[in-house]
Amino acid sequence: GFGDEISGSIGFVDAGGQVAAKHAVTAKYLAQAVERSGAAAEAAGVGFHDFMGMVTAIGEVTRKSGKEVGTSTKFMFKQFTAPKTQKVLGDIGIKSLTGEGDLRPSMDVIKDVAGRWEDLSRSQQLAIAQAVAGTRHYNDFIVLMKNFDTALMASANSQNSQGFAMRKNSIAMETFSKQMEVLKQTVNGLAISIGK
Q1: In this structure, how many other beta carbons lie within 10 angstroms of the beta carbon of residue 160?
Q2: How far is the C-alpha of 18 from the C-alpha of 39, rounded, in Å?
Q3: Residue 140: which of 85, 90, 74, 78 has the closest Cα?
Q4: Could you report the per-residue pLDDT of 66-76, keeping only the tens digit for each?
Q5: Which of 125, 156, 166, 174 would suit a FRET pair with 92, their CA atoms being 20 to 30 Å apart?
Q6: In angstroms, rounded to a whole number, what is the distance separating the alpha carbons of residues 62 and 56?
């Protein structure tokens, strides 16, 4: 999945590394979430970078595993097509269908909900969360809505990650080189001291 947005495994490594470096999630967590729910996200119209943002926002707060959040988001993506979810969203003026009757991309709907979240009553928020995420996962949806700015920031970090892994490796190699040079000088100095 996500083939058009990332170019092979290095694109994933760059995105995962960059997001993990800037947010309280690990690259392993992100990989688990993508493995569990990436195909469902793509099928629902959620792009790779937006998906990375969503699972980061949920994971930072809940501290659940990537597999758990992947399961939760997979359920959410499936529920966006359910008539009950479409009705609950329609009741607050958010359309999940296009004018032609096709499903809108889930990410567009999620952004619409996030934009209205603070203006909704607590009972409306709960109704939407339960319709979208069910009784087992609704807390993750509430966390996502309350931390949607984090999702957007992590998505931007993922999008701007090209070359991250190479830069990180270059810094590590440079540091290692400097450490080896200091060690070499120390050994030479020690040899000179012993030789006196």
Answers
A1: 13
A2: 22
A3: 74
A4: 999 999 999 99
A5: 156
A6: 10
